[in-house]
Queue: 2 jobs
Job 1
Amino acid sequence: MLKAAVFSDTHGNTAPMLGAARAAGADVLIHLGDHDRDAQALRDAFPDTPVYSVCGNCDVMPLAPEKLVVPLGAVKALLVHGHRYGVSTAQADWLVFAAREEEAQIAMFGHTHSAFYEQIGGVTLLNPGTAGCGRVLSWALVTVFDNGAIACEIREM
């Protein structure tokens, strides 16, 4: 079993994310952009924990790539910010197609600042919401079981 703490859209406000990451005790930490440099705060605070990150639409001269495909235990995960996949228009088709192209069972994205978790077309889609700005701050705890089953829990900060 593997646990991943997933954050997005911190926009420079890393304190809530760091607190949630400490409480999570996750095996992997994920940052989905806006601001990709905030992922460095995770790397600094948790030097022995793998950190995966992608950049978002607000990242100027980004340090992270726009897309990553990473192993999470028994599954593959597609990590994107989402702005290039039409997520703001409530259309998941492009993201589902991209995940299938990468043979990923879960696609994680941010951008909308709204938490979202749903299975569409055989792909688990997850948006942890915003961990840095807005009325409600949230993040997600993803559990990947040894048999490939995926459970996602949206948590408020």
Job 2
Amino acid sequence: MIHHLKGKLVEKNPTNVVVECGGVGYFVNISLNTFSKISDSESIQIYTHLQVKEDSHTLFGFAEKSEREIFRLLLSVSGIGSSTARTMLSSLSPTQIRDAIASGDVPTIQGIKGIGAKTAQRVILDLKDKILKIYNIDEVSLNSNNTNKDEALSALEVLGFARKQAERVIDKVLTQDSSLSVEDIIKQTLKNL
């Protein structure tokens, strides 16, 4: 198993990078989330997951270990392959996926291209307990946080802001401080909109 690659960034595209290590160029598939976090500097370190199949060896790369961990959890779900897991990590941040699974938020996961209602439910059913245990998430605080997020989102919609844009900014605000009240979430979000 290849844990990570550290070397020269030869090529960078939204779906892949080429990293040269010791004279060998490795073609690494990445998500849009990783693409946005990789700098254009010459030196790069990327965490990897090697998928070995009968007819191919495919390398997936991640800017952070946490994203790789979510990717591996998603692969453990029946019906979720590497391309679907990569699409999920391109559509939502690892934190958003983790929180959606932990809170049983089917609509968020179903909102990802290629994910239907049954698959979204299966992802939540298979991974909810693992995610609560691995990340030591308290379900009570998660539910109250979700209620605050929903209330703040509704208030911003009433004020005329687009739901998707407001939700993105609220998620950023909550990743910095998840204990904010509804009023504070709205205030912080308005500063960043």
